[in-house]
């Protein structure tokens, strides 16, 4: 009888143990899921603080990746000032004034870039384009005030091109960066179409770089060496208001002009010799015809 009661009791205990084990597993699984859900709901940590951006660094869109990339910072550029001048000087002797000019240019480390000579009926003139280091420009201009002749006109101008120079420099640096990127892409290009497109972009960038570098060289040249347009002239017919020209020079010019006028008049008469021959012949024939008509 005891055995019969023990067997059902053992079965009940076994069934109860089997039911308790899955419940513990399910409880563990629920705890894991709750932890995962809690982790997902946890707000992410704040992003790291970025270092302050340099004001000299600019941001642009890359033509290669289409993303914004910082441009390289450009070193501070000193003032770029271009000086130009125009001076006209009236002299008594052009050749002598030109010799004096040579000494002045040598003293101020200047040189003649262009020279043009004109000799007309009214004036003799030498037009010069002079290049001088910008440090010597003011000294050269002041050297013309005395010793050569009378300064009849003077125009000095300055042009600040610092902003243009800085802008061209920044663009040039960016173009060089993009050119390097395109060259790296060309090494890994897989199709002919990609190769041709990259090569075309490289060609355009190289042309733009050459243009920008040429512009910078031109500005540097104009900044380092100022340009002065100088005219040395002598009037062949002068008025009494001429300054720094003596009476003797004006008297000699008047005699020369009078002689030139006489020679010109004489040559004009000689040029009319056909008329001087034909007109008397016409008058003779007309008188002869008139006398015959009266006799009839």
TrEMBL record:
Signal peptide: none annotated. The chain crosses the membrane at residues 262-286. Residues 38-74 are annotated as: Disordered. Residues 53-71 have a biased composition (Polar residues). It holds the Pfam family DUF4349. Residues 79-286 form the DUF4349 domain. Keywords: Coiled coil, Membrane, Transmembrane, Transmembrane helix. Residues 179-222 form a coiled coil. This is DUF4349 domain-containing protein. It comes from Chryseobacterium soli.
